[in-house]
Design brief:
Number of strands of chain B: 4
Strand content of chain A: 15-25%
Shape of chain A: globular
Number of strands of chain A: 22
Shape of chain B: globular
Radius of gyration of chain B: 13 Å
Distance between the termini of chain A: 63 Å
Strand content of chain B: 15-25%
CATH architecture of the largest domain in chain A: Alpha-Beta Barrel
CATH topology of the largest domain in chain A: TIM Barrel
Largest interface: A-B, 20 and 28 residues
Largest sheet of chain A: 9 strands, mixed
Number of helices of chain A: 13
Bound molecules: pyridoxal-5'-phosphate
CATH class of the largest domain in chain A: Alpha Beta
Structural class of chain A: alpha/beta
Largest sheet of chain B: 3 strands, antiparallel
Oligomer: heterodimer
Number of helices of chain B: 3
Protein backbone atom coordinates (compact mmCIF):
# COMPACT_ATOMS: atom_id res chain seq x y z
CA UNK A 1 0.00 0.00 0.00
CA UNK A 2 1.34 3.42 -0.90
CA UNK A 3 2.07 5.56 2.10
CA UNK A 4 0.35 8.86 2.70
CA UNK A 5 2.15 12.18 2.39
CA UNK A 6 3.50 13.14 5.78
CA UNK A 7 3.35 16.46 7.50
CA UNK A 8 4.60 17.22 10.97
CA UNK A 9 2.02 17.40 13.77
CA UNK A 10 1.11 20.99 14.62
CA UNK A 11 -0.84 22.62 17.38
CA UNK A 12 -1.69 26.30 17.02
CA UNK A 13 -3.27 28.47 19.64
CA UNK A 14 -6.34 30.36 18.43
CA UNK A 15 -5.96 34.06 19.12
CA UNK A 16 -9.50 35.24 18.71
CA UNK A 17 -9.83 38.91 17.79
CA UNK A 18 -6.13 39.23 17.04
CA UNK A 19 -5.71 38.71 13.33
CA UNK A 20 -2.13 38.41 12.24
CA UNK A 21 -0.84 41.53 10.53
CA UNK A 22 0.49 39.41 7.68
CA UNK A 23 -2.31 36.93 7.95
CA UNK A 24 -3.33 37.50 4.36
CA UNK A 25 0.12 36.72 3.21
CA UNK A 26 0.84 33.17 4.23
CA UNK A 27 3.34 31.68 1.83
CA UNK A 28 2.68 28.00 1.76
CA UNK A 29 2.60 27.86 -2.02
CA UNK A 30 6.07 26.75 -2.97
CA UNK A 31 8.36 28.33 -5.57
CA UNK A 32 9.86 25.24 -7.20
CA UNK A 33 10.87 26.78 -10.52
CA UNK A 34 12.44 30.05 -11.58
CA UNK A 35 11.93 30.79 -15.27
CA UNK A 36 11.38 27.11 -15.93
CA UNK A 37 14.49 25.94 -14.07
CA UNK A 38 14.03 23.72 -11.04
CA UNK A 39 15.17 25.24 -7.76
CA UNK A 40 16.29 21.81 -6.49
CA UNK A 41 18.41 21.28 -9.60
CA UNK A 42 20.01 24.70 -9.26
CA UNK A 43 20.95 23.97 -5.65
CA UNK A 44 22.24 20.53 -6.57
CA UNK A 45 24.35 21.89 -9.40
CA UNK A 46 25.66 25.09 -7.85
CA UNK A 47 25.45 24.63 -4.07
CA UNK A 48 23.48 26.31 -1.31
CA UNK A 49 22.94 29.17 -0.72
CA UNK A 50 22.72 30.52 -4.25
CA UNK A 51 21.82 33.87 -5.81
CA UNK A 52 19.72 33.68 -8.95
CA UNK A 53 18.90 36.49 -11.37
CA UNK A 54 16.26 36.31 -14.06
CA UNK A 55 17.16 37.94 -17.37
CA UNK A 56 13.53 37.69 -18.39
CA UNK A 57 12.36 39.70 -15.40
CA UNK A 58 15.09 42.32 -15.78
CA UNK A 59 14.17 42.81 -19.42
CA UNK A 60 10.43 42.91 -18.78
CA UNK A 61 10.81 45.36 -15.90
CA UNK A 62 13.08 47.62 -17.93
CA UNK A 63 10.73 47.59 -20.91
CA UNK A 64 7.81 48.29 -18.64
CA UNK A 65 9.43 51.34 -17.09
CA UNK A 66 10.70 52.55 -20.44
CA UNK A 67 7.23 52.29 -21.91
CA UNK A 68 5.77 54.24 -18.99
CA UNK A 69 8.11 57.16 -19.72
CA UNK A 70 8.48 57.09 -23.52
CA UNK A 71 4.71 56.98 -23.96
CA UNK A 72 4.52 60.31 -22.12
CA UNK A 73 7.69 62.14 -23.11
CA UNK A 74 9.82 62.11 -26.27
CA UNK A 75 13.36 62.17 -24.84
CA UNK A 76 14.05 59.52 -22.21
CA UNK A 77 17.37 58.03 -21.18
CA UNK A 78 17.95 55.49 -18.41
CA UNK A 79 21.37 55.25 -16.73
CA UNK A 80 21.98 52.05 -14.79
CA UNK A 81 22.81 52.77 -11.14
CA UNK A 82 25.95 50.65 -10.72
CA UNK A 83 25.85 50.54 -6.93
CA UNK A 84 22.47 48.84 -7.04
CA UNK A 85 24.00 45.79 -8.71
CA UNK A 86 27.35 46.09 -10.46
CA UNK A 87 27.87 42.53 -11.57
CA UNK A 88 29.32 42.92 -15.04
CA UNK A 89 26.72 40.60 -16.55
CA UNK A 90 23.91 42.71 -15.08
CA UNK A 91 25.44 46.02 -16.19
CA UNK A 92 26.08 44.62 -19.66
CA UNK A 93 22.47 43.51 -19.91
CA UNK A 94 21.23 46.98 -18.96
CA UNK A 95 23.63 48.54 -21.46
CA UNK A 96 22.34 46.18 -24.15
CA UNK A 97 18.82 47.28 -23.31
CA UNK A 98 19.91 50.88 -23.88
CA UNK A 99 20.92 52.15 -20.44
CA UNK A 100 23.86 54.41 -19.89
CA UNK A 101 25.95 53.99 -16.72
CA UNK A 102 25.58 55.95 -13.47
CA UNK A 103 28.63 55.56 -11.23
CA UNK A 104 29.76 57.05 -7.91
CA UNK A 105 33.43 56.06 -7.59
CA UNK A 106 36.59 55.47 -9.57
CA UNK A 107 36.04 51.75 -9.05
CA UNK A 108 32.59 51.87 -10.63
CA UNK A 109 33.80 54.19 -13.39
CA UNK A 110 36.46 51.65 -14.39
CA UNK A 111 33.87 48.91 -14.38
CA UNK A 112 31.64 50.90 -16.73
CA UNK A 113 34.51 51.47 -19.16
CA UNK A 114 35.39 47.75 -19.04
CA UNK A 115 31.74 46.94 -19.73
CA UNK A 116 32.17 48.75 -23.02
CA UNK A 117 30.11 51.83 -22.34
CA UNK A 118 31.35 55.01 -24.02
CA UNK A 119 32.77 57.69 -21.76
CA UNK A 120 30.16 60.21 -22.90
CA UNK A 121 27.46 57.83 -21.68
CA UNK A 122 28.78 57.64 -18.13
CA UNK A 123 27.24 59.83 -15.45
CA UNK A 124 29.73 60.39 -12.65
CA UNK A 125 27.97 61.16 -9.36
CA UNK A 126 29.01 61.23 -5.74
CA UNK A 127 31.13 63.24 -3.33
CA UNK A 128 34.30 61.15 -3.80
CA UNK A 129 35.93 61.75 -7.17
CA UNK A 130 39.71 62.00 -7.06
CA UNK A 131 41.70 64.41 -9.19
CA UNK A 132 42.73 61.48 -11.42
CA UNK A 133 39.09 60.40 -11.72
CA UNK A 134 38.06 63.91 -12.77
CA UNK A 135 40.84 64.21 -15.34
CA UNK A 136 39.91 60.87 -16.88
CA UNK A 137 36.20 61.66 -16.90
CA UNK A 138 36.83 65.11 -18.43
CA UNK A 139 38.96 63.67 -21.21
CA UNK A 140 36.38 60.95 -21.89
CA UNK A 141 33.57 63.50 -22.15
CA UNK A 142 31.67 61.89 -19.28
CA UNK A 143 28.89 63.78 -17.52
CA UNK A 144 30.37 64.96 -14.24
CA UNK A 145 27.77 65.77 -11.61
CA UNK A 146 29.34 68.20 -9.16
CA UNK A 147 28.56 67.56 -5.51
CA UNK A 148 30.23 70.42 -3.61
CA UNK A 149 32.19 73.66 -4.05
CA UNK A 150 35.57 72.00 -3.39
CA UNK A 151 34.93 69.74 -6.34
CA UNK A 152 33.69 72.64 -8.46
CA UNK A 153 36.89 74.62 -7.90
CA UNK A 154 39.11 71.57 -8.41
CA UNK A 155 37.36 70.86 -11.70
CA UNK A 156 37.83 74.45 -12.91
CA UNK A 157 41.55 74.11 -12.14
CA UNK A 158 41.73 70.77 -13.94
CA UNK A 159 39.91 72.15 -16.97
CA UNK A 160 42.48 74.91 -17.15
CA UNK A 161 45.45 72.58 -16.84
CA UNK A 162 44.36 69.97 -19.38
CA UNK A 163 42.71 72.43 -21.74
CA UNK A 164 39.39 70.62 -21.88
CA UNK A 165 35.87 71.86 -21.23
CA UNK A 166 34.38 69.19 -18.95
CA UNK A 167 30.68 68.50 -19.35
CA UNK A 168 29.03 69.05 -16.00
CA UNK A 169 25.78 69.17 -14.11
CA UNK A 170 25.22 70.10 -10.51
CA UNK A 171 23.44 67.92 -8.05
CA UNK A 172 20.67 69.90 -6.38
CA UNK A 173 19.13 69.01 -3.03
CA UNK A 174 15.81 70.49 -2.03
CA UNK A 175 12.70 70.35 0.06
CA UNK A 176 10.22 68.14 -1.77
CA UNK A 177 7.97 67.68 1.22
CA UNK A 178 9.52 64.40 2.31
CA UNK A 179 11.13 63.73 5.64
CA UNK A 180 14.00 63.37 6.23
CA UNK A 181 15.18 65.74 3.54
CA UNK A 182 18.41 64.57 1.91
CA UNK A 183 20.64 67.61 2.13
CA UNK A 184 24.11 66.14 2.38
CA UNK A 185 24.61 65.69 -1.36
CA UNK A 186 24.82 68.52 -3.83
CA UNK A 187 23.84 72.18 -3.52
CA UNK A 188 20.71 73.36 -1.79
CA UNK A 189 17.93 74.91 -3.84
CA UNK A 190 16.05 76.87 -1.18
CA UNK A 191 19.01 78.72 0.31
CA UNK A 192 20.34 79.81 -3.09
CA UNK A 193 23.47 77.64 -3.03
CA UNK A 194 22.48 75.83 -6.22
CA UNK A 195 21.99 79.13 -8.07
CA UNK A 196 25.32 80.33 -6.69
CA UNK A 197 27.09 77.20 -8.00
CA UNK A 198 25.45 77.67 -11.40
CA UNK A 199 26.63 81.28 -11.60
CA UNK A 200 30.19 80.28 -10.76
CA UNK A 201 30.17 77.62 -13.46
CA UNK A 202 28.74 79.97 -16.06
CA UNK A 203 31.05 82.85 -15.19
CA UNK A 204 34.17 80.62 -15.15
CA UNK A 205 33.59 79.67 -18.80
CA UNK A 206 35.76 76.61 -18.14
CA UNK A 207 32.93 74.13 -17.72
CA UNK A 208 30.03 73.25 -19.99
CA UNK A 209 26.87 73.13 -17.90
CA UNK A 210 24.80 70.54 -19.74
CA UNK A 211 22.42 69.25 -17.07
CA UNK A 212 20.77 69.53 -13.69
CA UNK A 213 20.59 66.58 -11.34
CA UNK A 214 18.82 65.52 -8.18
CA UNK A 215 18.24 62.28 -6.31
CA UNK A 216 15.67 63.11 -3.68
CA UNK A 217 15.68 59.84 -1.75
CA UNK A 218 15.16 56.14 -2.10
CA UNK A 219 12.09 53.93 -1.83
CA UNK A 220 9.81 56.93 -2.42
CA UNK A 221 6.32 55.77 -1.50
CA UNK A 222 4.59 58.63 -3.28
CA UNK A 223 5.17 60.14 -6.74
CA UNK A 224 4.34 63.73 -5.79
CA UNK A 225 7.81 64.72 -4.45
CA UNK A 226 9.08 64.04 -7.99
CA UNK A 227 6.71 66.72 -9.30
CA UNK A 228 8.12 69.19 -6.79
CA UNK A 229 11.71 68.24 -7.70
CA UNK A 230 11.05 68.51 -11.44
CA UNK A 231 9.48 71.93 -10.97
CA UNK A 232 12.49 73.21 -9.02
CA UNK A 233 15.01 71.92 -11.60
CA UNK A 234 12.96 73.53 -14.37
CA UNK A 235 12.92 76.84 -12.52
CA UNK A 236 16.73 76.73 -12.45
CA UNK A 237 16.90 75.81 -16.14
CA UNK A 238 14.62 78.72 -17.04
CA UNK A 239 16.68 81.15 -14.96
CA UNK A 240 19.88 79.95 -16.66
CA UNK A 241 18.28 80.46 -20.07
CA UNK A 242 17.02 83.87 -19.04
CA UNK A 243 20.32 85.13 -17.65
CA UNK A 244 22.88 83.40 -19.91
CA UNK A 245 20.85 82.40 -22.99
CA UNK A 246 22.16 78.91 -22.29
CA UNK A 247 19.94 75.85 -22.75
CA UNK A 248 20.18 72.94 -20.35
CA UNK A 249 20.31 69.67 -22.32
CA UNK A 250 19.03 67.29 -19.68
CA UNK A 251 17.25 66.99 -16.36
CA UNK A 252 18.34 63.97 -14.32
CA UNK A 253 15.76 63.03 -11.69
CA UNK A 254 17.97 60.35 -10.12
CA UNK A 255 16.58 57.11 -8.75
CA UNK A 256 14.35 56.32 -5.81
CA UNK A 257 11.33 54.54 -7.22
CA UNK A 258 10.08 51.99 -4.70
CA UNK A 259 10.30 48.29 -5.44
CA UNK A 260 7.46 46.02 -4.38
CA UNK A 261 9.13 44.87 -1.19
CA UNK A 262 7.44 45.51 2.14
CA UNK A 263 9.28 47.86 4.46
CA UNK A 264 9.71 46.77 8.07
CA UNK A 265 6.86 48.04 10.17
CA UNK A 266 4.60 48.67 7.16
CA UNK A 267 1.05 47.56 7.73
CA UNK A 268 0.28 46.59 4.15
CA UNK A 269 2.48 44.68 1.72
CA UNK A 270 4.54 46.69 -0.78
CA UNK A 271 2.74 45.02 -3.68
CA UNK A 272 -0.41 46.90 -2.58
CA UNK A 273 1.10 50.26 -1.69
CA UNK A 274 3.93 51.12 -4.09
CA UNK A 275 3.31 53.50 -6.98
CA UNK A 276 3.71 52.10 -10.49
CA UNK A 277 6.19 53.32 -13.12
CA UNK A 278 3.21 55.04 -14.76
CA UNK A 279 2.47 56.97 -11.55
CA UNK A 280 6.06 58.22 -11.30
CA UNK A 281 6.23 58.97 -15.04
CA UNK A 282 3.03 61.02 -14.83
CA UNK A 283 4.33 63.02 -11.89
CA UNK A 284 7.56 63.96 -13.66
CA UNK A 285 6.62 64.37 -17.32
CA UNK A 286 3.45 66.40 -16.72
CA UNK A 287 5.49 69.07 -14.99
CA UNK A 288 8.01 69.33 -17.84
CA UNK A 289 5.40 69.35 -20.57
CA UNK A 290 3.30 71.98 -18.83
CA UNK A 291 6.29 74.20 -18.02
CA UNK A 292 7.52 77.35 -19.81
CA UNK A 293 10.19 75.36 -21.67
CA UNK A 294 9.43 75.61 -25.36
CA UNK A 295 8.70 72.32 -27.16
CA UNK A 296 11.77 72.55 -29.41
CA UNK A 297 14.04 72.90 -26.38
CA UNK A 298 12.68 70.10 -24.26
CA UNK A 299 15.53 68.61 -22.24
CA UNK A 300 16.26 64.89 -22.20
CA UNK A 301 14.89 63.27 -19.07
CA UNK A 302 17.48 61.00 -17.47
CA UNK A 303 16.50 58.41 -14.86
CA UNK A 304 18.95 56.59 -12.61
CA UNK A 305 16.41 54.07 -11.40
CA UNK A 306 18.07 51.30 -9.39
CA UNK A 307 16.08 49.06 -7.06
CA UNK A 308 12.79 49.24 -8.93
CA UNK A 309 14.47 47.82 -12.04
CA UNK A 310 16.15 44.82 -10.48
CA UNK A 311 14.70 43.87 -7.11
CA UNK A 312 12.06 41.61 -8.66
CA UNK A 313 14.61 39.78 -10.81
CA UNK A 314 16.69 38.53 -7.88
CA UNK A 315 16.20 35.44 -5.73
CA UNK A 316 18.28 33.78 -3.09
CA UNK A 317 17.87 30.05 -2.60
CA UNK A 318 18.87 28.31 0.59
CA UNK A 319 18.50 25.31 2.84
CA UNK A 320 17.02 24.67 6.28
CA UNK A 321 19.82 23.86 8.72
CA UNK A 322 17.74 23.22 11.82
CA UNK A 323 14.50 23.82 13.67
CA UNK A 324 14.39 24.92 17.27
CA UNK A 325 11.99 25.95 19.98
CA UNK A 326 12.82 29.21 21.68
CA UNK A 327 12.34 29.45 25.43
CA UNK A 328 8.93 31.00 24.81
CA UNK A 329 7.84 27.94 22.82
CA UNK A 330 8.06 29.94 19.61
CA UNK A 331 9.31 28.11 16.58
CA UNK A 332 12.67 29.09 15.06
CA UNK A 333 13.99 27.88 11.73
CA UNK A 334 17.66 28.35 10.91
CA UNK A 335 18.61 28.65 7.27
CA UNK A 336 21.97 28.99 5.54
CA UNK A 337 21.17 32.53 4.33
CA UNK A 338 22.42 35.18 6.74
CA UNK A 339 22.26 38.96 6.90
CA UNK A 340 25.86 38.97 5.65
CA UNK A 341 24.51 38.14 2.19
CA UNK A 342 21.00 39.50 2.60
CA UNK A 343 21.74 43.01 3.75
CA UNK A 344 18.25 44.20 2.79
CA UNK A 345 16.69 42.09 5.52
CA UNK A 346 17.52 45.05 7.78
CA UNK A 347 14.97 47.13 5.80
CA UNK A 348 12.47 44.71 4.37
CA UNK A 349 10.11 41.97 5.49
CA UNK A 350 11.35 39.68 2.75
CA UNK A 351 8.95 37.14 1.33
CA UNK A 352 10.18 33.60 2.00
CA UNK A 353 8.72 30.56 0.27
CA UNK A 354 9.30 26.85 0.61
CA UNK A 355 10.86 25.31 -2.51
CA UNK A 356 8.90 22.06 -2.27
CA UNK A 357 5.35 20.90 -1.64
CA UNK A 358 4.71 21.15 2.04
CA UNK A 359 2.00 21.30 4.61
CA UNK A 360 -0.51 24.11 4.29
CA UNK A 361 -0.43 24.31 8.08
CA UNK A 362 1.68 27.14 9.33
CA UNK A 363 3.14 28.28 12.58
CA UNK A 364 4.34 31.65 13.71
CA UNK A 365 8.08 31.32 13.10
CA UNK A 366 11.27 33.31 13.44
CA UNK A 367 13.72 32.71 10.62
CA UNK A 368 17.38 33.02 11.55
CA UNK A 369 20.50 33.00 9.44
CA UNK A 370 23.50 30.80 10.27
CA UNK A 371 25.77 33.44 11.79
CA UNK A 372 26.70 33.23 15.41
CA UNK A 373 25.31 36.72 15.96
CA UNK A 374 22.15 38.01 17.52
CA UNK A 375 21.50 40.41 14.63
CA UNK A 376 21.22 37.55 12.16
CA UNK A 377 17.45 37.54 11.75
CA UNK A 378 15.93 37.15 8.31
CA UNK A 379 12.30 37.36 9.48
CA UNK A 380 11.32 38.14 13.05
CA UNK A 381 7.79 36.82 12.66
CA UNK A 382 6.27 35.00 9.71
CA UNK A 383 3.47 32.49 9.36
CA UNK A 384 5.48 29.70 7.83
CA UNK A 385 4.94 26.02 7.10
CA UNK A 386 7.10 23.63 9.09
CA UNK A 387 10.07 22.64 6.99
CA UNK A 388 12.45 19.83 7.85
CA UNK A 389 16.24 19.98 7.92
CA UNK A 390 17.49 19.85 4.35
CA UNK A 391 14.34 21.38 2.85
CA UNK A 392 14.88 24.37 0.61
CA UNK A 393 13.61 27.93 0.72
CA UNK A 394 13.38 30.74 -1.82
CA UNK A 395 13.53 34.42 -0.90
CA UNK A 396 12.06 36.71 -3.52
CA UNK A 397 12.77 40.27 -4.68
CA UNK A 398 16.35 40.61 -3.52
CA UNK A 399 18.06 41.78 -6.74
CA UNK A 400 18.88 45.30 -5.53
CA UNK A 401 21.83 46.19 -3.26
CA UNK A 402 22.43 42.72 -1.81
CA UNK A 403 25.02 41.70 -4.39
CA UNK A 404 26.94 44.92 -3.73
CA UNK A 405 26.38 45.65 -0.04
CA UNK A 406 26.88 42.07 1.11
CA UNK A 407 29.84 41.44 3.35
CA UNK A 408 32.35 38.71 3.74
CA UNK A 409 31.59 37.98 7.36
CA UNK A 410 31.84 34.54 8.99
CA UNK A 411 30.89 32.71 5.80
CA UNK A 412 32.00 33.05 2.19
CA UNK A 413 29.81 34.55 -0.50
CA UNK A 414 28.06 32.06 -2.76
CA UNK A 415 27.76 31.80 -6.54
CA UNK A 416 25.47 33.99 -8.58
CA UNK A 417 23.57 32.51 -11.49
CA UNK A 418 21.84 34.31 -14.35
CA UNK A 419 19.02 32.44 -16.05
CA UNK A 420 18.80 33.60 -19.65
CA UNK A 421 15.62 33.96 -21.67
CA UNK A 422 16.00 30.38 -22.93
CA UNK A 423 16.07 29.03 -19.36
CA UNK A 424 19.77 28.34 -19.49
CA UNK A 425 21.75 28.98 -16.30
CA UNK A 426 25.06 30.85 -16.41
CA UNK A 427 27.44 31.38 -13.51
CA UNK A 428 28.07 35.14 -13.48
CA UNK A 429 30.07 35.26 -10.25
CA UNK A 430 31.99 32.39 -8.73
CA UNK A 431 31.70 31.55 -5.07
CA UNK A 432 34.47 32.80 -2.84
CA UNK A 433 37.00 30.37 -1.43
CA UNK A 434 39.36 30.65 1.52
CA UNK A 435 42.27 31.24 -0.84
CA UNK A 436 40.68 34.45 -2.18
CA UNK A 437 41.08 35.97 1.26
CA UNK A 438 44.33 34.24 2.20
CA UNK A 439 45.88 35.91 -0.84
CA UNK A 440 45.08 39.37 0.48
CA UNK A 441 46.53 38.86 3.93
CA UNK A 442 50.10 39.14 5.10
CA UNK A 443 51.14 37.71 8.45
CA UNK A 444 54.43 39.25 9.64
CA UNK A 445 57.18 36.63 9.74
CA UNK A 446 57.67 36.83 13.49
CA UNK A 447 54.07 35.79 14.04
CA UNK A 448 54.24 32.75 11.81
CA UNK A 449 54.50 29.28 13.28
CA UNK B 1 2.42 11.18 29.88
CA UNK B 2 -1.26 12.00 30.04
CA UNK B 3 -3.55 14.64 28.71
CA UNK B 4 -5.24 16.76 31.34
CA UNK B 5 -8.63 15.29 32.07
CA UNK B 6 -10.84 18.27 31.50
CA UNK B 7 -9.51 19.02 27.99
CA UNK B 8 -12.18 18.87 25.30
CA UNK B 9 -11.16 17.57 21.86
CA UNK B 10 -13.48 17.76 18.87
CA UNK B 11 -13.16 15.44 15.90
CA UNK B 12 -12.19 18.30 13.63
CA UNK B 13 -9.09 19.02 15.65
CA UNK B 14 -10.36 21.76 17.88
CA UNK B 15 -9.15 21.70 21.49
CA UNK B 16 -10.53 23.67 24.39
CA UNK B 17 -8.84 23.99 27.76
CA UNK B 18 -11.54 25.13 30.22
CA UNK B 19 -9.10 25.91 32.99
CA UNK B 20 -7.28 28.56 30.95
CA UNK B 21 -9.94 29.42 28.37
CA UNK B 22 -7.47 28.79 25.53
CA UNK B 23 -8.43 27.01 22.36
CA UNK B 24 -6.20 25.39 19.80
CA UNK B 25 -6.35 23.88 16.36
CA UNK B 26 -4.54 20.74 15.23
CA UNK B 27 -3.72 19.40 11.81
CA UNK B 28 -4.98 15.86 11.01
CA UNK B 29 -1.79 14.08 12.03
CA UNK B 30 -1.76 16.13 15.22
CA UNK B 31 -5.27 14.84 15.98
CA UNK B 32 -4.13 11.29 15.34
CA UNK B 33 -1.19 11.58 17.70
CA UNK B 34 -3.28 13.26 20.34
CA UNK B 35 -5.78 10.40 20.25
CA UNK B 36 -2.92 7.93 20.66
CA UNK B 37 -1.82 9.87 23.70
CA UNK B 38 -5.37 9.97 25.00
CA UNK B 39 -5.39 6.18 24.78
CA UNK B 40 -2.09 6.11 26.70
CA UNK B 41 -0.05 4.63 23.87
CA UNK B 42 3.72 4.61 24.27
CA UNK B 43 6.03 6.48 21.89
CA UNK B 44 7.17 3.23 20.20
CA UNK B 45 3.61 2.22 19.40
CA UNK B 46 2.78 5.65 18.05
CA UNK B 47 5.95 5.77 15.96
CA UNK B 48 5.30 2.31 14.48
CA UNK B 49 1.77 3.29 13.54
CA UNK B 50 2.78 6.58 11.92
CA UNK B 51 5.74 5.13 10.02
CA UNK B 52 3.53 2.36 8.75
CA UNK B 53 0.95 4.78 7.44
CA UNK B 54 2.96 7.84 6.30
CA UNK B 55 5.94 8.46 4.12
CA UNK B 56 8.38 9.58 6.81
CA UNK B 57 11.64 8.33 8.32
CA UNK B 58 12.18 7.46 11.99
CA UNK B 59 14.43 10.38 12.83
CA UNK B 60 12.26 13.05 11.25
CA UNK B 61 9.21 11.70 13.03
CA UNK B 62 11.02 11.43 16.35
CA UNK B 63 12.16 15.07 16.15
CA UNK B 64 8.69 16.25 15.16
CA UNK B 65 6.99 14.12 17.84
CA UNK B 66 9.04 15.46 20.73
CA UNK B 67 8.63 18.98 19.41
CA UNK B 68 4.87 18.42 19.37
CA UNK B 69 4.91 17.07 22.94
CA UNK B 70 6.90 20.12 24.01
CA UNK B 71 4.21 22.34 22.53
CA UNK B 72 1.50 20.43 24.39
CA UNK B 73 3.46 21.03 27.59
CA UNK B 74 4.04 24.70 26.81
CA UNK B 75 0.33 25.09 26.32
CA UNK B 76 -0.45 23.33 29.61
CA UNK B 77 -2.34 20.48 28.01
CA UNK B 78 -0.42 17.63 29.70
CA UNK B 79 -0.57 16.48 33.31
CA UNK B 80 2.55 17.30 35.26
CA UNK B 81 4.41 14.09 35.94
C1 LIG C 1 22.81 59.38 -7.20
C2 LIG C 1 21.99 58.15 -7.17
N1 LIG C 1 21.29 57.80 -8.26
C3 LIG C 1 20.54 56.68 -8.29
C4 LIG C 1 20.44 55.83 -7.20
C5 LIG C 1 19.57 54.62 -7.28
O1 LIG C 1 18.54 54.72 -6.38
P1 LIG C 1 17.32 53.68 -6.28
O2 LIG C 1 17.89 52.32 -6.14
O3 LIG C 1 16.59 54.14 -5.06
O4 LIG C 1 16.51 53.82 -7.53
C6 LIG C 1 21.15 56.17 -6.05
C7 LIG C 1 21.05 55.31 -4.85
O5 LIG C 1 21.51 55.53 -3.78
C8 LIG C 1 21.94 57.35 -6.02
O6 LIG C 1 22.63 57.71 -4.93
Amino acid sequence: MEKLRYESPIINKVNAGMPDKFGMNVNTKPISYIDGVSVKDLLKDYGSPLFVLSEKTITETYNNSKRAFTSRYPKIQFAWSYKTNYLNAVCSLFHQLGSWAEVVSGFEYEKAIKNGIEGKHIIFNGPDKSKEDLIKASKNGSLIHIDHFDELYMLIEIADSIDETPKVAIRVNMDTGIFPQWDRFGFNYENGEAWNAINRIMISKKLNLVGLHCHIGTYMMSPSPYSVATKKLIDLALEIDHKYKHKIKYLDLGGGFASKNTLKGAYLPGTDTCPTFDDYADAITNVIINSQISPENLPTLILETGRALIDDAGYILGTVLANKRLASGRRATIIDIGVNMLFTSFWYEHEIFPAQQCSTQTEDTTIYGPLCMNIDVIRQAIQFPILQKGDNVVIKRIGAYNMTQWMQFITLRPKIILIDTESKAHIIRKNETNSVFENLEITPKYLKK
Amino acid sequence: MRLKKNIAISETGFIFNPSTGDSFTLNPIGIEILSFIENEKKYEEISDAILEKYDVDTITFEKNYYDFIQMLKNNHLLENE
